[in-house]
Amino acid sequence: MIAPEIMGILNVTPDSFSDGGSFVEEVTIRSQVEQMIADGADIIDVGGESTRPFADPVSVEEELRRVILAVTALRKVAPDVPVSIDTTKAEVAEKALAAGATMVNDISALRHDPKMIDVVRAYDGPVIIMHMQGTPDTMQIKPAYDNVIDEIVAFFRERIEWLVANGIHQERIIIDPGIGFGKTLDHNLDILRNIDVFKRLGHKVLIGHSRKSFFKSLLNIPLAERDCPTAVVSALCARQGVDILRVHDVCKTCYAVGIADALN
User: Fold this and answer.
1) Any catalytic annotation for residue 142?
2) Can you tell me whether residue 102 is helix, strand or coil?
3) Are 139 and 133 in contact (CB under 8 A)?
4) Which stretches of the chain are DSSP H helices?
């Protein structure tokens, strides 16, 4: 087993489902980044617009204000750590990359903004593409599939082919099946049971399951109690070969992955 990279989530939003409003000033951003790196984070993922179900959209100007402050602040304490910019907007991605981000994490898989492909092509770094049924304001309204795994795989095949045709090298592409993005509890569990199917596509696989609402459906627990089950799922994903785990609590995840590695 090769231990996955741990991506620490830095939400610089007032309305994210888990930690909205916690990291909106430079001092708290820097402190959180220092803590995540000390806990074992390999990558920091910066997001300036909430993608929770039914979230209100954010203007380019407001998203830029949030993420440029965050990227600039974290670069003061972590000049070398890889930084992902979580956005669907080309202008935000371009300016965040110029400020020090090193990869793009686009939940729309470059479908939202037609200019995003130009930004990604111009920077020689990874690009994360995620599967989502619908959009954040519609995705949890009765999501349905004939076969969730087959449909996600078909989606990735189309997106990868499109990216390569538009000048993005295969090795730059990372895939995220999109836990909780247009998925029911059963859909999410099917994804977590079938990591090997996604691995067969030949790309790094990212799983972003941290603190998500399927834990409430599965275990009947509130948001404040989801870090331990998140860590359990992280360990199970690590044993299946997941390459990147995107999480809020880096420390618990590193403990869980370390135990899974030792047992393997």
Assistant:
1) no
2) coil
3) yes
4) 26-39, 60-77, 90-99, 116-122, 148-165, 185-193, 195-199, 214-219, 227-239, 250-263
Helix (H, G, I), strand (E, B) or coil at 70: helix
Task: Indicate if 212 belongs to the active site.
Answer: yes
**Pair of tokens at residue 230:** 């998140």
- CATH architecture of residue range(s) 5-263: Alpha-Beta Barrel (3.20)
Please give the structure tokens belonging to residue 204: 């790094």
Going residue by residue through the chain (264 aa), what tens digit of pLDDT does each one get? 688 999 999 998 874 444 444 556 888 899 999 999 999 999 999 999 987 776 778 899 999 999 999 999 999 999 999 999 999 999 999 999 999 999 999 999 999 999 999 999 999 999 999 999 877 766 677 888 999 999 999 999 999 999 999 999 999 999 999 999 999 999 999 999 999 999 999 999 999 999 999 999 999 999 999 999 999 999 999 999 999 999 999 999 999 999 999 998
Q: Tell if the pTM clears 0.85, that is, is over it.
A: yes
Residue in the structure block whose two tokens are 């489902």: 17
Using DSSP, state whether 62 is helix, strand or coil: helix
Residue of 89, 204, 212, 226 with catalytic role: 212
Choose the catalytic residue: 66, 75, 226, 246: 246
Going by C-alpha positions, the residue among 87, 117, 89, 84 that lies closest to residue 101 is 84
Query: Which tokens belong to 135?
Result: 């959009």
Measured distance CA(177)–CA(201) in Å, rounded: 12
Distance CA 38, CA 35 (A): 5
CB–CB of 96/63 below 8 Å? no
H helix or E strand, kind and range, residue 175: strand 173-176
What are 245's strand-pairing partners? 6, 207
